[in-house]
Design goal:
Layout: E1 6-11, H1 15-24, E2 32-35, H2 43-56, E3 60-62, H3 69-75, H4 87-101, E4 106-109, E5 128-131, H5 133-137, H6 141-151, H7 176-185, H8 187-200, H9 215-218, H10 221-250, H11 267-270
Parallel strand pairs: 1-2, 1-4, 2-3, 4-5
Helix pairs in contact: 1-6, 7-8
The protein binds iron/sulfur cluster (SF4).
């Protein structure tokens, strides 16, 4: 007898996958909600998932990790992960997902929206079929905000201090201003991220989360002031651009505002 198809939705702790979970709650009652916890998440992410779980009315299963970040860091010789060495995603997100799925036939629900061009993780395993309900139903960023508002969940708390993504607190995809905000909001986590850099030197080569600048350098008061000034200038530029885009739009152009301010990076960690 054929195995029944399982329906699985991976949550990242970000707004889009949370909105998709709420969107699918009554459509697919047998949905399995899972979370690949790296053990290096922000406390706000864990809190957000706790509130989401209450709204869904069913558990969010943490997938079992074979080993944690520190184990894999040793395996990779103390080499911190980066955009070009993304062993963290592979071992802490993708492998646990495929392990959880096993050989069962699965429909994997991914929260890519109709107004974005990012590509999602598409498993090469033949038993996994990936679907994009938001994209198929034409839902855009404004719809995601509406779903989150109406459900009472809202946005993750980390957005209140300027972090744009879920995922590990030391994620190398974060912008310099986000590192500054991390230091201001969670100085203990910033110190932990700095310790990882200091310890990586022991292995003969220096690895920094941001490749070109260490956290010890970034946290100097004059450097923080510089980063903040640059960020404020870029925000002012964006505001001007948006005003211009509005004019273009009123003249009949087709402009997609929703591409602006979207966090870059690994989708399974941050969507
Ligand atoms: S959130 Fe960032 S550091 Fe963590 S697993 Fe994903 S890519 Fe790696």
């Amino acid at each position: 007898m054929d195995k029944p198809i399982r329906h699985i939705l991976s949550l990242s702790g970000g707004k889009d996958s949370a909105a998709l979970a709420i969107y699918m709650r009554d459509r697919i009652p047998e949905m399995e909600y899972i979370f690949h916890d790296t053990d290096k998440e922000l406390p706000e992410t864990i809190e957000y998932l706790g509130r989401l779980q209450a709204i869904l009315g069913k558990p969010i299963t943490k997938t079992s990790r074979v080993d944690n970040f520190d184990h894999w860091l040793t395996v990779y010789g103390g080499m911190l992960p980066s955009n070009h060495r993304r062993w963290c995603t592979k071992n802490l997100k993708l492998k646990p997902f495929e392990h959880y799925v096993g050989s069962d036939p699965v429909i994997n629900y991914v929260a890519l929206r109709a107004d974005e061009k990012r590509t999602g993780y598409i498993s090469t395993k033949p038993n996994i079929q990936t679907v994009y309900p938001f994209r198929e139903d034409g839902l855009v960023k404004a719809d995601i905000f509406r779903i989150l508002e109406e459900s009472g969940l809202g946005l993750p708390q980390y957005t209140t201090w300027g972090r744009t993504r879920s995922g590990c607190f030391f994620c190398f995809y974060q912008q310099k201003i986000e590192w500054v905000r991390l230091k201001e909001t969670h100085p203990d986590l910033f110190e932990e991220a700095k310790r990882y850099e200091e310890q990586s030197v022991l292995h003969g080569e220096e690895f920094f989360w941001q490749e070109s600048e260490s956290l010890a350098s970034l946290e100097r008061p004059e450097r923080i002031a510089e980063i903040k000034a640059k960020w404020e200038a870029s925000q002012a530029r964006k505001l001007t651009q948006r005003k211009n885009l509005t004019l273009v739009e009123t003249l009949g152009g087709v402009v997609n505002y929703e591409e602006i301010d979207e966090p870059e990076g690994c989708l399974i960690c941050s969507i």
